[in-house]
Write a structure and sequence with these properties.
With 184 residues, the protein is of the alpha/beta class. The protein has a single domain, classed as 3-Layer(aba) Sandwich (Rossmann fold), CATH 3.40.50. Helices cover 29% and strands 26% of the residues. The protein has a seven-stranded mixed beta sheet with strand order 3-2-1-4-5-7-6.
């Protein structure tokens, strides 16, 4: 796993050993960043369920102004911290080592994000819990986007009831990216 493009291009990143995390493959990461490339420069990027931190670090490498990482697992959080130091993005990043909902509450009033990316454990409905929180939150900027990496059988039929719209669904062989916007 590596940074694909930008100022930290080709730098290898550490990953957490074992099956606790499921790193996004370089091919899927590249496809995602090609889709959102125009949104990245100068943006505030939130990486929830960060794992190794590769998504937020890729965003900073490509010109994001700031990235915040949230990771509850202590080994994974240590991996994020190591990757932040290795890429020399210590001034452009912040790590919360806590559960996602506690971190979101702690960030309220401190940050506003252009892009919120989450890759929660599959089939545990964490994306539903996070979206339930975000529907009444000020963390997402007015024209911001939420990107959920999910299993292929994840349903998002509840989005309209929460005040969200599924703008795009990009399907891969083993998973998908749901691009979600808040209704104005």
């Amino acid at each position: 796993m590596r940074i694909i493009a930008g100022t930290a291009r080709s730098l290898p990143l550490k990953t957490v050993e074992g099956l606790d995390t499921r790193p996004t493959t370089d091919r899927i990461k590249e496809t995602l960043f090609n889709i959102i490339q125009d949104e990245i420069p100068g943006c505030y990027f939130l990486d929830l369920f960060a794992g190794s931190g590769q998504m937020g670090l890729e965003a900073v490498s490509r010109g994001a102004q700031y990235a915040v990482f949230v990771e509850n697992n202590k080994k994974a959080a240590a991996c994020v911290e190591d990757n932040i130091r290795f890429t020399k993005f210590t001034k452009e990043t912040k790590l919360y080592n806590s559960d996602v909902l506690s971190a979101l509450r702690a960030m309220e009033g401190k940050y506003r994000f252009d892009i919120i990316f989450m890759d929660p454990p599959y089939k545990q409905e964490f994306e539903y819990d996070v979206l339930s929180y975000l529907k009444d939150s000020s963390l997402l900027k007015e024209n911001g986007i939420i990107i959920v990496e999910a299993s292929l059988d994840t349903a998002f039929d509840y989005l309209p009831d929460m005040g969200f719209t599924l703008k795009r669904l990009k399907t891969y062989k083993t998973n998908e990216h749901a691009f979600i916007i808040k209704n104005q």
